[in-house]
Each structure stands twice: as structure tokens, then as C-alpha cells.
Design a protein that fits this description.
binds protoporphyrin IX containing FE, two-stranded antiparallel ribbon, Fumarate Reductase Cytochrome B subunit, single chain, mainly alpha
């Protein structure tokens, strides 16, 4: 029987947190972009579209607020544990590039979570359980955080494509990188 080298995989907590994060972030990203497209001037703002936009935005606010403690846990766990080694599969430059890209993704997600909270200009809640008041009321600052939110979401989208592109490339060239996270 062939034994798998456990040190080549992320530990269980890292894997669980990665996949929860992937679902939450991919959903918040693509539904957020759809809502922003639906708000474009050339889209007729029918009643159904307005209701759908509000529903998705409120749902995303609740979901991403609930996700915040998990993100903190994930970041602390990543800082406190060593990454599994890559064996002979990647060059030093590739490993450094992957590490740098991962750090950028952590920073961008943190920026999105903080800017999202700070740009709220109305009372908001978590699935109706609790209601919070806006943290900032100054219109100019609300605008600044909204811009930060918008541009960091575009930057994260680029990194997600790079992340998935690199994974696909490695899978095709026989490097089983995906297995590290399964
Ligand atoms: C990982 C977390 C998050 C991701 C990936 C994400 C992603 C996005 C994206 C892609 C948009 C559309 C941007 C545009 O083109 O205008 C958006 C909008 C929005 N996000 Fe987030 N977001 C996240 C966290 C949050 C948080 C924590 C909050 C608030 C607590 C929030 C509140 C909003 C709101 C209210 C909008 C609509 C803005 C508007 O109407 O102009 N987001 N988000
Ligand atoms: C279906 C989508 C996804 C797949 C298949 C996937 C797969 C993977 C795999 C295989 C790794 C290990 C890579 C390595 O060891 O070099 C990894 C790591 C990572 N992924 Fe993803 N991923 C996905 C979505 C995402 C998303 C949406 C994010 C959002 C930011 C993300 C952020 C990360 C980060 C930060 C790491 C590094 C983990 C660490 O060092 O703590 N992934 N992913």
C-alpha cells in the first residue's frame, strides 16, 4: 500500500477554512459584481431588479460579517503554522511567487472586509439577529472606503484568476498542487 506523505498537505483546519473562504469569497465577489452591473444606467430598474439587488446586498453583508472571525482564525493559523513543503515539484522562484500571491490575497480580503464595514452608510445587520449603526457618517470618507472596496475587489478578482490559472497549469503539467488542499 502506498502511504501519502501528510507533510505535503495543509492540515485539516487550514483545508476546512480555505474551502469555506473560497465559497464565501467567490459568492460575494460574483454576486457583488452582478449587483453592480444591474445598477448600470442602461439596465431598466424594474421592481424585481430593485428587490433582487437589495436582497443580495443585505445577504452578502450578513454573510461576510459572519465570515470575519473565520478569516481572523485563518490568518492566525496561517501565521502560526508552517506551510507543507512542495517536495521537488516547484522551483524556489515559483514557491516565492506563490507565497507572495497568497500574502497579497490575505491582505486584499482583509482590506475588503474592513472597507466593507467602514463604507456602510445605513444601519445594517446579520440576518436580522443584530443591527449595527454606520461606523462613519462623513460622506467623503464613506466615498473613499467605497472606492477602496471597489478597487480591492477588482484586484482580488485578478489574483483569483491567477490562483486558478496557476493551479490548472500545474495540474496539466503533472504537479498535483490541488491535492495539497484536499
Ligand atoms: C471578502 C469579502 C467581500 C467581497 C469579496 C466583496 C465583494 C464585493 C464586490 C465585488 C462588490 C461590487 C463592487 C462594484 O463593482 O461596485 C461589492 C459591493 C458591496 N459590498 Fe462587498 N465584498 C466583501 C465584503 C463586504 C463587507 C464585509 C461588507 C459590509 C459589511 C460589504 C458590503 C458591500 C456593499 C454594501 C456593496 C454595494 C456597494 C454599492 O452599492 O455601491 N462587502 N462587494
Ligand atoms: C475553486 C476555487 C479554489 C481552488 C481549487 C483553490 C485551491 C487551492 C490550492 C490547491 C491551494 C494550495 C496551493 C499551494 O500550496 O501552493 C490553495 C491555497 C490558497 N488559496 Fe485557494 N483555491 C480556490 C479558491 C480560493 C479563493 C477564492 C481564495 C481567496 C482569496 C483562495 C486563497 C488561497 C490562499 C490565500 C492560499 C494559501 C493558503 C495558505 O498558505 O494559508 N483560494 N488554494
Amino acid at each position: 500500500m502506498i502511504m501519502e506523505d501528510a507533510t505535503l498537505r495543509f492540515d485539516r483546519l487550514a483545508r476546512i477554512l480555505h474551502w469555506i473562504s473560497a465559497v464565501v469569497i467567490l459568492w460575494a465577489m460574483f454576486s457583488g459584481l452582478c449587483v453592480s452591473l444591474l445598477s448600470a444606467q442602461y439596465v431598466e430598474q424594474t421592481y424585481v431588479i430593485q428587490v433582487a439587488k437589495h436582497f443580495i446586498t443585505d445577504f452578502n453583508v450578513s454573510l461576510t460579517i459572519l465570515y470575519m472571525p473565520l478569516f481572523v482564525l485563518r490568518a492566525i493559523h496561517a501565521l502560526r503554522t508552517k506551510k507543507p513543503h512542495y517536495g521537488e515539484t516547484l522551483s524556489t522562484v515559483q514557491i516565492k511567487t506563490a507565497n507572495l500571491a497568497h500574502i497579497c490575497m490575505y491582505i486584499l480580503v482583509a482590506t475588503l472586509l474592513c472597507s466593507g464595514l467602514l463604507m456602510m452608510n445605513r444601519p445594517f445587520g446579520v440576518f436580522g439577529w443584530i443591527t449595527m449603526m454606520p461606523i462613519i457618517t462623513d460622506l467623503q470618507w464613506l466615498n473613499v472606503y467605497s472606492r477602496i472596496h471597489q478597487y480591492s475587489s477588482y484586484a482580488l478578482l485578478v489574483f483569483i484568476f491567477l490562483h486558478l490559472g496557476a493551479l490548472l497549469k500545474h495540474q496539466y503539467s503533472g504537479n498535483q498542487i490541488l491535492k495539497r488542499m484536499l
